[in-house]
Amino acid sequence: MIRCVAIDDEFLALEVIENYVGRLPFLELAGTFTNALEALPLLTAEPIDLMFLDIEMPDINGLAFLKTLKKAPMVIFTTAYSQFAAEGFEVDAVDYLIKPIPFDRFLKGVQKAQQRLQPSETTIQPDHLFIKSDYKTLRVALNEILYIEGMKDYVCIHTTGQSINTLLSITALLEKLPLAGFVRVHRSFVIALNKINSIERNTILIGAIKIPVGDQYRDELMKRISP
Fold this sequence. Notes:
Blueprint: E1 2-7, H1 11-23, E2 27-33, H2 40-45, E3 50-54, H3 62-68, E4 74-79, H4 85-90, E5 95-98, H5 103-117, E6 128-133, E7 136-141, E8 145-150, E9 155-159, E10 163-166, H6 170-176, E11 182-186, E12 189-192, E13 198-200, E14 203-206, E15 209-212, H7 215-225
Parallel strand pairs: 1-2, 1-3, 3-4, 4-5
Antiparallel strand pairs: 6-7, 8-9, 8-12, 9-10, 11-12, 13-14, 14-15
């Protein structure tokens, strides 16, 4: 999990970042601020991995603020002005995003941050998960998962051979899944991309099962299945 904060004097810009962060299960938004100085207590008191930082702000601009931090987190600059790009990279920014920021460009930036956090990892992607269900720990093959359904108090993993209930949340379970193979399509559903038979308007068909597509997840789904 990457803990992040967003600092921007424009409320709309903060709302965009908050929405984008909410789509990515490996990001946790610890706070949003319209003034950089207001973020100082959080940045000094808690571990923050990544900061989305506007440059042109009142009182102190983003570049100057960053230089005041003794131990700064990784930074992705978000700004409407391209002329600061060179200076932004001089302070070792992870990325430099020009507003309005499209989601695919935002995703590319945070993936760079992921790589910085794990620069030397060359681990082989596992082909299974171990899931606690009741009093058992079950081995679940990733290629057998059809979709995951969030219930009121638990999550149900539907596979080709069985359905497994676990007390994990959808967000926690997504962290265990390979990002390339699964996508959240609804507040209550995650699907395996290679198990989709067809998509009809706002409904995904996996075999005879119909799964709804939430409006806020549709764009990301279509990008993931586009050639």
